[in-house]
Amino acid sequence: MAQVRIMSDDPDEVGDIVAILLPHLRSHPDLAVGGPTTLEHRRGGGRVVFEVLLSRRGGPVRVEAERVDESEPGSASVRRPRNYRALPPGRTE
User: Fold this and answer.
1) Terminal CA-to-CA distance of the chain, rounded, Å?
2) Contacts of 64 (CB under 8 A, 6+ apart)
3) How far lies 11's CA from each of 14, 20, 35, in Å?
4) pLDDT of 5-43, one tens digit each?
5) In sequence order, which residues have a C-beta less than 8 Å from that of residue 48 and are 6 or more positions away?
């Protein structure tokens, strides 16, 4: 993973560069670009960082996962937070 940092004493300049650069990087098929994060700059300027990864050629990769339940739902051996929401049952195709 690589991280790109754009930093300047002029925060408007940083914003303009990010606005131009990100669409170009995201349009490249061999790159996956993360979202920009704005960080503090000591002198009140601007500093933005984002990650750039090499992406797989051939488009998105489909991943499937199956859920395996070891115990019955609601059993005393499983403690869950109050706001817990179970996943829906898996599909069988």
Assistant:
1) 37
2) none
3) 5, 15, 18
4) 999 999 999 999 999 999 999 999 888 899 999 998 878
5) 5, 6, 7, 14, 15, 18, 36, 37, 38, 39
